[in-house]
Predict the 3D structure of the following.
Amino acid sequence: MLDGGDVVLPIRYHFGMLSVLLGMAAIIAIGVCWRLILKEKAADAIRAHLAQAVYQIFLPALVLHVLWQTPVDLNSVRLPLVSAIAVLISLLLAALVYGSGWLIRACMGAHYHANRAIGALLLASAFGNFTYLGLPVLTQAFGPWAQMVAIHFDLLASTPLLFTVGVLVAQYYGQSAGEARAFLGLLRVPAVWAAVAGLLLSALHLPQPAWLDESLATLGSAVVPLMLLSVGMALRWQRGWGGRLPVLVPVLLIQLVVMPLVAWAASVGVGMPQRLLPPSVIEGAMPTMVLGLVICDRFRLDTSLYAEAVTLSTIVSMLTLPLWLRIVV
């Protein structure tokens, strides 16, 4: 495990990270099996309720608990900055690949609704699963202290960008009528308010009462398994995937190869402490975020194609994450 200030020491990954990923994959697989057993409609309803519980209760409790105990310093700026750079460069690269629509029309036919697909693929390429999968991976790979990296990456950079730049992309390629209020969606994210409260309480050096510390820790402990289960229940695949696979390959390359490289370079550029560099790179190596399904549904983008990007990138990340861990640790 990382220890001793800025000195990187060998961590349990070298002998045990495979078993950790297998354990996480097993929980995701349970979610997949649950979806198959319950059928799609019932599984989606249960996943929606499960996601709401995490979204409204458990995740805000974890965020408040972690950030209240995290010192507010330059790293509180460095981590979101690295995340923003990684997301925006990935979005720009995806726009260069998909923006003209030629790849989509070449692989899926001239009459395919290219704009809806372009919007979905841009979101799939730029916004990683920094919390739902990032929290479990960083917790298991580096320890509970690394949860603050995932929270800074997502709630202080990726989520604000999703509800601003991401919404603009979805509006442009989808249906934007009556969606001017979408920018206010950021103000309705409980975990964002929990992050603001946690940072403020930490900056004011207010002690966390023992009873509240224990309560928040108990609620927060439910986040990781429920998130993994929710990811599994969100995975789906449609027939005819062979024809769509060439369209999805750039998403995989951007999310699982380019973004971690950008996060690495950005971390070095902003002077990230050595202790925080490996988890920052691993955060950049996360697959496509699940929350994007909601954005695609809302703006009538190609939700099925986005869901396949989530599924394929999550599966492939089970192979690429150990490689990135071996490289950066």
The radius of gyration is 19 Å. Residues 13-328 form a domain with the Na+/H+ antiporter like fold fold (CATH 1.20.1530). The chain has one domain: 13-328.
